């Protein structure tokens, strides 16, 4: 009797133990593979913590004389924050194209990390010996230019090793680096700013850049020996069977063998995919809604406490956000669902904005910061959804992830100007803009979900018509 893959013949009884044995062998091999990969990937979390600390230390420095020492006025501080993202916008796509071409993230990402750590250290020196605003702008621009390699590169790296149903949890653990950095970065900053004032003739905020940048360089050197390359270019720490399984898992997850494309072909495919642009524009709005992150110490200072207490109070909201992000992402992977998980988190964030703009009561305003911080759980689900919604080949995925982050960085540029000093201490107008941005991003995600539903239905109809096996489906 004729049959296809959808309706295989019944196996003989004596074949059943063999099939069970093969399945059991694969499960054991897959568990060992994932344990090895997870151990090596874990350093990405530490790198991202340092990435965010080096990116956001100007916000903590602002509480101890950064603006006064550099004689900043008007929107100059906001410009110093936003110029970093100009470097991001310029570099993210070329960086991921180059990473896909060389296939050696274990070297490329740590080298970039060493450079940005050095630039962070130089910020403390340069702004003292170069005209103040100009020196700060230059160092921040080049910091963003080099830091741009990390996040899209890390997303691309984990998407090469993990299936789509495994991505949300791993993306969450990576992105939790930013949440942890906000929590413990504040602890580090409070210790440095409280104890290093005047040491060797430098202000405490300058020591913030010296110490944190030096720590980044040390970790980068260690990362060279820990980070994995891609499945097809990793050697020495996987058995041949594990390496073959790593590549086969990706082929099975996407329903076809990965076609190798030149980076320029990946660029063309990404630029002509409407889904990529839609996700990128949605990310602009989400980044605007999350712009409170760069001003978190400033928002906390509106509670009226000293600099050290203000920084210590920044810790609990981000610890809470980390716990929520891990829980939401795990449940999102378990249920293979994205939209409602990200929507729930952003809706709670909107509640936080409404609470903050409605009162100056210290307790209520502090609780509102918890609600705002946990919005990052939705942001993480969005990143996992975007990564899993970009089709093969790998060259396209590399560019698409970078393109989404590049265009999305425009939201960071805009968000830098959402919190001007004339709007303090209530920042009601700022919170209103964040609410509008969140609502717009969620609306775009709902429309995106409807589009994916239609694409899945079309693919299912096509498979029924031609009698083929079940193939690729977009997660909703």
From TrEMBL:
Keywords: Membrane, Transmembrane, Transmembrane helix, Transport. Signal peptide: none annotated. InterPro entries: MFS, MFS_dom, MFS_trans_sf. The chain crosses the membrane at residues 73-95, 107-127, 133-159, 171-193, 205-227, 276-296, 308-328, 340-360, 366-386, 398-418, 430-448. It is a multi-pass membrane protein. Residues 40-453 form the Major facilitator superfamily (MFS) profile domain. Coiled coil: none annotated. It is found in: Membrane. SUPFAM superfamilies: MFS general substrate transporter. One of its GO terms (molecular function) is transmembrane transporter activity. GO terms for cellular component: membrane. The keyword Transport applies. PANTHER family: PERMEASE-RELATED, TRANSPORTER, PUTATIVE (AFU_ORTHOLOGUE AFUA_1G16690)-RELATED. This is MFS general substrate transporter. It comes from Armillaria tabescens (Ringless honey mushroom).
């Amino acid at each position: 009797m004729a049959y296809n893959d959808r309706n295989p013949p019944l196996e003989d009884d004596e074949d059943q133990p063999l099939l069970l044995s093969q399945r059991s062998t694969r499960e054991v091999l897959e568990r060992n593979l994932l344990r090895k990969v997870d151990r090596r990937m874990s350093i990405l979390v530490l790198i991202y913590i340092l990435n965010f600390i080096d990116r956001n230390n100007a916000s903590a420095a602002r509480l101890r004389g950064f603006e006064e020492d550099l004689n900043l006025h008007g929107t100059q501080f906001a410009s110093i924050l936003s110029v970093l993202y100009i470097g991001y916008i310029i570099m993210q796509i070329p960086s991921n194209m180059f990473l896909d071409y060389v296939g050696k993230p274990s070297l490329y990402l740590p080298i970039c990390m060493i450079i940005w750590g050095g630039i962070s250290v130089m910020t403390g020196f340069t702004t003292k010996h170069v005209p103040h605003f100009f020196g700060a702008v230059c160092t921040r621009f080049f910091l963003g230019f080099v830091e741009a390699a990390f996040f899209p590169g890390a997303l691309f790296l984990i998407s090469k090793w993990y299936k789509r149903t495994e991505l949300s949890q791993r993306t969450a653990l990576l992105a939790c680096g930013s949440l942890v950095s906000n929590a413990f970065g504040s602890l580090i900053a409070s210790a440095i700013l409280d104890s290093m004032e005047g040491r060797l003739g430098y202000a405490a905020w300058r020591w913030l850049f010296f110490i944190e940048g030096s720590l980044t360089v040390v970790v980068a050197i260690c990362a060279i020996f820990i980070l994995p390359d891609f499945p097809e270019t990793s050697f020495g720490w996987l058995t041949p069977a594990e390496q073959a399984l790593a590549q086969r898992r990706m082929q099975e997850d996407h329903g076809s063998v990965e076609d190798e494309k030149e980076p320029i072909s990946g660029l063309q495919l990404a630029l002509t995919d409407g889904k990529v642009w839609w996700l990128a524009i949605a990310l602009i709005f989400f980044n605007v809604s999350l712009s409170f992150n760069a001003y978190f110490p400033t928002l906390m200072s509106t509670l009226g406490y000293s600099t050290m207490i203000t920084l210590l109070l920044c810790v609990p909201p981000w610890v809470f956000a980390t716990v929520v992000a891990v829980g939401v992402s795990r449940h999102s992977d378990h249920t293979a669902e994205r939209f409602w998980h990200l929507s729930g988190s952003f809706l709670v964030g909107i509640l936080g904005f409404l609470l903050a703009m409605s009162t100056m009561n210290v307790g209520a305003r502090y609780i509102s910061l918890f609600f705002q911080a946990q919005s990052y759980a939705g942001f993480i689900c969005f990143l996992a959804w975007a990564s899993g919604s970009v089709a093969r080949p790998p060259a396209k995925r590399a560019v698409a992830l970078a393109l989404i982050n590049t265009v999305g960085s425009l939201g960071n540029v805009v968000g830098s100007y959402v919190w001007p000093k004339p709007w303090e201490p209530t920042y009601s107008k700022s919170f209103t803009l964040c609410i509008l941005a969140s609502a717009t991003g969620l609306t775009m995600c709902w429309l995106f979900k409807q589009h994916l539903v239609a694409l899945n239905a079309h693919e299912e109809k096509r498979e029924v018509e031609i009698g083929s096996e079940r193939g690729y489906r977009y997660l909703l």
